[in-house]
């Protein structure tokens, strides 16, 4: 009795056995090793992959960069101090400076005016004598000033009404200056006030150009030729040092600390933790008490203490003490993690099986325990790198890191923050690099964790 | 037979995953009667838990999706509904317990508070009343020193005790039906027996129906009135416990029985595993799901989904071997009692 | 619980003792004679110091004198500021740092829990994406950069409205505290948000939330009584380290915003090699941090019955 829901199938040969012609369906998919699987997972994670490329790019920037951009990071370019990137580098070749007696070719009306093209050699001002003036004060500002105020101390006070010209040669840079002339009467009351914006052009003499390597020889240069000053793609800092070169060399310090400190302290932690976990018992307890104790020490305070205690001799960069201090203070967290893993793995069946087959302790550790904790260890290292970079930056920022003139991103930020309002690029570039590096390592760490450690796989 | 308490028809559930759509449940129908135990049996991944969890609205949607099907209780389809006549379905009409009592209870809330919660929400008890009732319920599930135990936290309980507490919580509002999703899988054998006895006793006392999900045929034999054998998201055999055990009429059921130890010393019994593995539910085969593993498969099994054949009024099997034209019909099936 | 508390306090005391000892020997290891430093030039200060610290005596005796002083709560006299006691410096400047730090911890804790819960609720939708983007920024940008940028933003904001909406630097009113404490708490807030989010998402899929649903509890009750409470636990465990991070982060924020707190004073002392102030503040900060970690651990025990009843 068939309770059919569909019409009964037709030909009886459909009902012949399948035995002979059938092969058991294989449901296996190609098997991947742990590392192959991890790599496949990492590759499919776009964010982690981009971060990986970023990290590789940063390494290239650090290692290969200085070979291509060979500018000395501590060389000062006195012509270009605190220049932002893309600043005008053209300089007109002029005759050497000649003293000025106040004479002028053309006087244009009754105003404060320039007697000559303003250059960084000299700015020459003349003005008509103001009626009733007993003295003139001249101010120079770099920001616009309104008519009724002139800020700061005057450049010069000229007494009497005879001198109506002034030559400024004080530390001029190619930029806009605001000159204010104030005429005072005998009692010191202002009778006249006038402000002039002056756009100072950069000039060099033939001698200077040759001296600074801007031209090969004096013969090639004629007055009113234009030469270009040294190129600084990312500008210069407050001492006229090339930002790009400093960033590259700073990257060496930051990434060196950022990568080697975690590698070292994780290594120490792995050795300590696996030893404790493997030996077990009283030794393990004692070792872990000690680790607990080191963990309880306030990290940054001790970093500072170490720094003071080591002291830094002349010519030393202070990188090594920082590295040592990090290793001494940071190993316990890894050792705890590894110990936990080892304790867990020790109880696994395959360890007992291996033991039964006569495996020795060394073999068990090398063949079973380390490979099985490798994923967790790698993830720890990846996350330790950004925090080490942060630590270096923090210490250098408060002046407790690397010693000048060695650049590091943190110390560059520290320098940059002082001139944040006028030349923000000195802060922005190193800050940006720190942020990008930390971001890249963090995202890479996320990707590694998802790829390597099934238990810690983030729920996203 | 009387009107079923719950009537499920043609339930289909799918999941969207990165690998594609998984058809986890493919047209399951069954009835549950008051005071009776229905056992759903099958191996891991056959869709037995998804069947009941989708009914209860416990599968995450998305990625899960109920494609079709109805589950009638008092002539109301409970799928996608929260209440019947103002009475909540979950916790009030249907109670549920799960496989792992260790993780199924909130670790930071006292046992008593957790049992009292459904009473507060569904039955309008005051906090004090609810807690007192929780103590009674713990007592009912044979937990000693219930008063003291109610104030303790899950980590202070053993696995068996936690499962008792789970049961107390599930029956707090006197539901008409209890769904037990592998209630004994995570427990020691001796504790298993105690929990099963407790469930049986409670069913007798309260007259509730039980849906018992398990992969353990021993549990089925001990508990069930009616059995549903599931394979690859479908019901392959359905019948009373005697039908399924003594008059097995699906090769998969036979395979399961051959793989189960028996407590009969006279019988020559070797445990025979079922070779192969269940089909990939990303791409369910167009024929019978069991075809690849079936020792008596026929050509048609590869090509067309088997029809459902009635063995008796209460007993059905989804297998081509019951078709009149089948050549390898019964000969390949080791019927122990019925076949001559 | 009492035994646990006592044990933790005892451990804490040992840690503080170690910090004090390490500080002492670190200072003694400083190249050159601290007293030869021209900062302590006048004979008067020199004599005072020698008497105070027994610098002419052997190392062990100096150490005992030093520990005795610390036990009496006396940190000595500043090297650079004549006759100013380190105790007075701490008493004057620490409350400012403490207020800043407490505000930052509150911002970070509340913000972290709130944003974390929010992102978990709106998982993979716009609010989640926006907040998590900001969180990644917050984790990746160093605090001193955030401080500098927000100060720059404040300057520009005040310029734009031509009115001093919020003070750019300094200390005194509530308005002075607002931006620095936000900046100080920001990194920790980002970190806690991430933690809270992942712990919320983990719990959403947990068995006991499924149980709660099967009990027929309303979503709000599940969220408040079951999900939130358990999700906060991991956040509380990292609060101790977070307080340490915020305290030391305060050094930089105080520096940038010119806040006269102990952190800024400490950094100055370090830069000027004012040894007694460094020693005093290090021991003080160390003790403070160790104590805070213990407090947080006890708080955790109070929240999590598994720890409380052990």
SSE order and pairing:
The complex is a heterotrimer of chains A (460), B (340) and C (310).
Chain A: H1 34-44, H2 46-63, H3 65-68, E1 90-94, E2 113-114, E3 123-126, E4 135-141, E5 156-159, E6 165-168, E7 176-184, E8 190-199, E9 203-205, H4 206-211, E10 226-228, H5 243-279, H6 281-295, H7 299-310, H8 319-346, H9 349-356, H10 361-397, H11 409-418, H12 425-452
Parallel strand pairs in A: 1-9
Antiparallel strand pairs in A: 1-10, 2-3, 3-6, 4-5, 4-7, 7-8
Chain B: E1 6-17, E2 20-32, E3 37-41, H1 48-55, E4 64-73, E5 76-77, E6 83-84, E7 87-88, E8 94-97, H2 101-104, H3 111-122, H4 127-140, H5 146-149, H6 159-170, E9 177-181, H7 189-206, E10 209-214, H8 217-223, E11 226-231, E12 234-240, H9 241-246, H10 251-258, H11 299-303, E13 308-310, E14 316-318
Parallel strand pairs in B: 3-10, 3-11, 8-9, 9-10
Antiparallel strand pairs in B: 1-2, 1-4, 4-5, 6-7, 11-12, 12-14, 13-14
Helix pairs in contact in B: 3-4, 3-6, 4-6, 6-7
Chain C: H1 2-28, H2 43-53, H3 59-71, H4 86-121, H5 126-140, H6 143-160, H7 174-204, H8 207-214, H9 219-237, H10 239-256, H11 262-272, H12 275-303, H13 305-308
Helix pairs in contact in C: 1-12, 4-5, 4-7, 4-10, 4-12, 5-7, 6-7, 6-10, 7-9, 7-10, 8-9, 10-11, 10-12, 11-12
Your description of this structure?
The complex is a heterotrimer of chains A (460), B (340) and C (310). Chain A contains 12 helices and 10 strands. With 460 residues, chain A is α+β, with helices and mostly antiparallel strands. In chain A, strand 7 and strand 8 form a beta hairpin. The longest helix of chain A is centred in the middle third of the chain and has 37 residues. The radius of gyration of chain A is 36 Å and the shape is elongated. With 340 residues, chain B is of the alpha/beta class. Chain B folds into 2 domains: 219 residues, 3-Layer(aba) Sandwich (Rossmann fold); 92 residues, no CATH class. Helix content of chain B is 29%, strand content 24%. In chain B, a hairpin with a 2-residue loop joins strand 11 and strand 12. In chain B, helix 3 crosses helix 4 and helix 6 runs parallel beside helix 7. By secondary structure, chain C is mainly alpha-helical. Chain C has a domain of 197 residues: MetI-like (MetI-like fold, Orthogonal Bundle). Helix content of chain C is 77%, strand content 0%. In chain C, helix 4 packs antiparallel against helix 5 and helix 11 packs antiparallel against helix 12. The longest helix of chain C has 36 residues. Chain C is flat. The mean pLDDT of chain C is 82. At the A-C interface, helix 7, helix 10, helix 11 and helix 12 of A face helix 1, helix 5, helix 6, helix 7 and helix 10 of C.
